[in-house]
Every structure is written in structure tokens, then in C-alpha cells.
Amino acid sequence: MNAVLKYICGTLVACVLILCLSGCGLMVHYNVAKPINPKTSPNPDTFIEIDTCTPTLAWEPVGEFSRIKVEFWELAIYQDNGWTYNWLGSGTKNDLGEPVYYVEKVYGARHTISEPLPMGQDYLWTVRPHWTEGSKLQTIKGWATFDNPSYFDHASGAMGRGASRRVTGALFTFATPLRYPQEK
Known about the structure:
This protein is mostly beta strands. The chain has a single domain (about 30-175), classed as Immunoglobulins (Immunoglobulin-like), CATH 2.60.40.10. The chain is built from one helix and twelve strands, in the order αββββββββββββ. The chain has one helix at about 1-20, and strands at about 30, 35, 55-60, 70-80, 85, 100-105, 110, 120-135, 135-140, 145-150, 165-170, 170-175. The strands form three sheets. Strands 4, 6, 8, 9 and 12 form a five-stranded antiparallel beta sheet that branches. The chain has a four-stranded antiparallel beta sheet with strand order 1-10-11-5, with no helix packed on it. A three-stranded antiparallel beta sheet has the order 2-3-7, with no helix packed on it. It starts with a helix and ends in a 9-residue tail after the last strand.
């Protein structure tokens, strides 16, 4: 009887751990591309400060886009203006406005910003692939975003898959440094 009880308890503990881990931000889904550099938080309210005003943005195609030959990417960077990502069920998105930096054709999945961005600012960025199908150039209507059904909802204090709001359609984020890095 003790062996059976230990087995059941061990199985229950393992199940609880799996459920907790799956509801703690590990379920982020990228629709087109996954940001590699700079590091992007799965919390779309968090802008991680980088050490330069001319970052190299890098991404990795995901899903069907990892299996096709992308001819080039479009890249857009927006200054954060209080943009609200789409909360599942709310359907609200503020207009991003015009990009502060835009490149129509990026060959490869990385690009270094050519003009310094202002210091101490929060930015949102995204990419969109273009590929050839037959003899016709194709693209998608939307841009690369991520969904995080495990996002901690600061408004309600809820966390995990049962949180009252789930993030969908969030852009990648970063913040430029508050002051120039010291020379080495």
C-alpha cells in the first residue's frame, strides 16, 4: 500500500509542476518570427534596456516561414505611445502611428539600425516576410507578433492560463539606454 501511495503522490506532484510551469510564461507563441536580439520580455509591458542606440535586431522565422525561402523582410520600429496590444476578447488596439524607423527590404534575418534612436525611449518592433510563390511575390497581411496566454495580468492580479485577460498580437520590445555607455 505504501508503494502505491508513494507512486500516486509522486505522479500528482509531477502533474502539478507541469501545470504550474506551463502557466508561467513558457507558452509564448510567435506567429511569424521569434526575436533573437535584443531580448524581448514575454510580458509586453516590459521594455528591456539595451546598451546601444543602434541595435542589431535579429529574428528567427517560425512555423511555415521557417520552411520557405524568404526573399526579404520588412522591418518597422515604433516609439511606444501607450500602444495597447490586443487583449483576447477586448479587441482594443491603439494606432501605432508612423514607424520611427522602417526598412522595406532586409535580406537575411538581422539588421543593424543605421541612424541612432533617441536615448531613454521605449520601442516596439516587428518584421514581415516576403517570398516568391511561382513567379509572384507574396507577403502576409499582418506583421510578426506574439501571444502569451500565460501573461500575468497586473490589472486583476490573476496569473496563468486562467487569467482574466490574455495577450495576443503583442509586438517585440526594447528600450534604448538612459545615457551613453562608458567607453572601455
